[in-house]
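step=encode ok
step=design start
structure_in=
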């Protein structure tokens, strides 16, 4: 059985994340305006695929399988979480069961795999994970990325 993270593990995870994305970080690539390094850093944290897209659906950076149509669908789904929950979002040809949905993020599950979509001021963060990354940690990572990093950049 898969071990669920406890509060101390979650806090440790967030501390590591904040060190990586801090303005004092030793990782200078995290402070450029090219979006690729940001997506790559999330991938290094355990996501299998990551995209950043504008609220109009324009893909800023993505490693497959995300499309502009999916990004637009996710943005529209955040505007109407009940519709999203009823339809079940699709990403990379897979349909996900929505476990959490509100106007600023949603979580989808398919077995041990998951889809996390988080809306920020100017973009959506779209990320897939496999069973190596617990959904709780994936959700916390994406929300922390938005709240502690993208918000500070004005995005």
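sequence_out=
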């Amino acid at each position: 059985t898969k071990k669920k993270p406890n509060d101390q593990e979650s806090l440790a995870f967030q501390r590591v994340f904040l060190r990586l994305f801090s303005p004092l970080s030793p990782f200078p690539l995290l402070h450029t305006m090219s979006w690729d390094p940001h997506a790559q850093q999330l991938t290094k944290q355990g996501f299998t695929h990551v995209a950043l897209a504008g609220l109009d659906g324009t893909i800023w950076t993505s490693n497959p399988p995300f499309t502009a149509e999916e990004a637009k669908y996710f943005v529209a789904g955040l505007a109407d979480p009940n519709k999203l929950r009823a339809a079940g979002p699709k990403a990379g040809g897979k349909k996900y069961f929505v476990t959490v949905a509100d106007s600023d993020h949603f979580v989808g599950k398919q077995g041990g795999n998951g889809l996390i979509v988080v809306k920020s001021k100017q973009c959506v963060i779209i990320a897939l994970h496999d069973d190596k990354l617990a959904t709780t940690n994936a959700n916390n990572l994406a929300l922390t990325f938005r709240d502690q990093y993208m918000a500070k950049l004005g995005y």
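step=design ok
step=annotate ok -> Confidence is low (pLDDT under 50) at residues 26-32.
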